[in-house]
Design a protein that fits this description.
The chain is an alpha/beta fold and 595 residues long. The protein is built from twelve helices and 30 strands.
């Protein structure tokens, strides 16, 4: 029942402290929050040896992206020479501090090694293709399993945009001489190579000035829509968000672009955010500008939290003392939430405020049967899982019993209300919670659901109520494959421990509706009982005799136990099992192992 708890859950664990950190607040939003960091590339001193730098990076952020250490000029200083030492130090630091790593970047027109420009002047597209493929294979392969997401192609679009598709920037990878692909073909090829090198990494296109509707975003959108339609491996788009005080985007425009990409099934990461301010000769910004900057940070974070397509938030640098802004924009600086002394600024407080107060978003489509992850309606007593309510406990909180010996309806500050009635909670985690639908919804045509965490209430959604929506629990917790079934000796039914035809197996499910004689929400089933509705079952398409169908003794009311006999003549091997409640069938694809 604890399905879909991803590997990223490690970034949501933290140690308590007197003052809330960005990392702690983001953990309650199931949101990786990151910073770009440096080690000792270009012969500079290793910033990780600076205590304030290392402490701020590790305690305030759950995600790390090498600012330079994974770029071409560092990773491949010679045509056949690779250098991973600076990036390896950053990855090791991240792992030691339970942070995830974004890789940046694999294909860019800038920060190229000294050998590559002259080489490109005489190389053929075929040779350039070999160079790029070798680089992607080597770099991604080196970090396979250590980098969860890559900026595969960085800043590929013209800025300002021309409005003429594909609107791509001139570069050695695109057309000078390019790798022999027309249009957006070089980007597609880079994505395919990256996916082949690490099939589990998320792949992004990263660019700036994508945050507002306009020609540049339209060009990117046309490309990724085409990629998605043809199955090109792409998972998201990075919005750099290097902003000046008071500059676009508007909240509406930013949300519109995030939603457009999310509708394609793509994520958005805010990847390089900073808000540069005018500073005096000592590098100090005015108090008024710092407050305006804080409001801008808060506005962008709010849009991110309000849109499920926004799945990470990152600033470009650890503090003002190591920001790129003063060196690139004379007269400007103070762009980050921490000052040159690593002290929090108003922008820090505004980010915390957004993460602690923005209303969590509930979507009726994300309320699903806990056994098979099918949604659309709920049934009395059904165990449901709710995804996407991005505000909750930063680490998994399991079911607890209240003073009456029932499964509690408040868990680590979390509640799920059905028509105002708190439901028993099986577990809770930021972004995912499991509850038992109260039996009092029986006989209703719909129920109003609301999520609450630390007294902050989500929107309400209305969900249809039906008598039964059966789902069988499976061993992989995804509702497919071998079922969560016990043989007569109470051992798990598996391919290595099958059951003979003519014997019986215990099946566990949910969504079977009301219990004869009534049931108390959250109470453990005291013993054998019966469902109000008729329960039948098939094995391999053949009706299977049922010995018992009712509440699972000792489990919370809402868990259905079905003891059925494997029909004589059932072939050996995995055989499909279906439970029907008043003729409504459970999901397909669940099997029992037969001798």
């Amino acid at each position: 029942m604890l399905a879909r708890l991803t590997a990223l859950s490690l970034v949501f664990a933290f140690c308590g402290s007197a003052q809330t950190t960005l990392r702690q607040a983001a953990a309650q939003r199931a949101l990786p929050i990151g910073a770009a960091a440096d080690a000792d590339e270009y012969g500079q001193a290793n910033k990780l040896n600076i205590p304030a730098y290392a402490t701020t990076l590790s305690t305030q952020f759950s995600m790390l992206e090498p600012e330079n250490a994974m770029k071409w000029d560092v990773t491949q200083p010679g045509q056949n020479t690779f250098n991973f030492e600076p990036a390896d130090k950053l990855v090791a630091f991240a792992q030691a501090n339970h942070m995830v790593v974004r890789g940046h970047n694999l294909c860019w027109h800038s920060q190229l090694p000294a050998w590559l420009g002259p080489y490109a002047q005489t190389a053929t597209p075929a040779q350039m293709s070999t160079v790029l493929q070798n680089h992607i294979n080597t770099v991604v392969g080196h970090f396979q399993g250590q980098v969860f997401a890559w900026d595969v192609v960085n800043e590929p679009f013209n800025d300002p945009a021309t409005g003429v598709l594909p609107d791509l920037r001139n570069s050695i990878w695109y057309n000078q001489p390019g790798i022999g692909q027309s249009g957006t073909g070089y980007i597609e090829q880079a994505l395919r190579w990256a996916h082949a090198a690490d099939p589990n990494a998320l792949l992004f296109i990263n660019d700036y000035n994508l945050e507002a509707p306009g020609a540049k975003f339209n060009a990117l959108y046309a490309m990724v829509k085409d990629f998605v339609s043809r199955g090109v491996p792409i998972n998201g788009v990075g919005f750099e968000m290097h902003l000046t005080l008071g500059s676009y985007p508007s909240s509406t425009g930013l949300a519109q672009n995030i939603q457009a990409l999310y509708a394609l099934g793509l994520q958005v990461h805010i990847t390089e955010m900073d808000v540069r301010l005018q500073v005096d000769s000592n590098g100090n910004a005015s108090a008024a500008d710092l407050q305006s900057q804080a409001a801008q940070y808060q506005r962008i974070m709010t849009v991110c939290l309000q849109n499920p397509g926004c799945t990470a938030f990152q600033v470009w640098g650890v503090s003002d003392g190591n920001s790129w802004i003063p060196g690139s924009f004379p007269g400007f600086g103070a762009a980050l939430p921490f000052d040159v002394n690593y002290q929090p600024k108003p922008a820090f407080n505004s980010l915390i405020s957004a993460m602690q107060t923005v209303t969590p978003t509930l979507n009726s489509a994300n309320i699903v049967n806990a056994a098979n992850y099918k949604g659309g309606s709920v049934a009395p007593g059904e165990l449901v899982t709710i995804f996407g309510a991005n505000f909750g406990p930063p680490s998994l909180a399991g079911a607890q019993l209240d003073s009456n010996g029932r499964v509690a309806s408040t868990l680590s500050g979390t509640q799920v209300l059905f028509d105002g009635t708190p439901a028993p909670l099986i577990y809770s985690l930021a972004g995912q919670v499991s509850a038992v639908v109260p039996y009092e919804v029986a006989g209703k045509t719909q129920t109003v659901v609301q999520y609450v965490y630390n007294n902050v209430q989500s929107n309400t959604v209305t969900v249809p109520v039906v008598p039964a929506v059966p789902g069988i629990f499976s061993q992989n917790s995804l509702g497919t494959g071998p079922g969560s079934m016990l043989n007569p000796d109470n051992t798990l039914n598996t391919a290595q421990n099958p059951i003979a035809a003519g014997s019986y197996v215990q099946i566990f499910a949910t969504g079977a509706g009301t219990i004869a004689g009534g049931a108390v929400d959250g109470a453990p089933a005291p013993g054998a009982g019966a469902q109000t509705l008729t329960v039948t079952a098939t094995v391999n398409g053949v009706n299977a005799p049922i010995l018992y169908a009712g509440p699972a003794p000792g489990e919370v009311n809402g868990v259905l136990q079905v003891d059925l006999t494997i029909p004589s003549g059932t072939p050996s091997g995995p055989q499909a099992v279906v439970v029907l409640v008043n003729g409504v069938a459970s999901q397909g694809g669940v099997t029992v192992a037969v001798k």
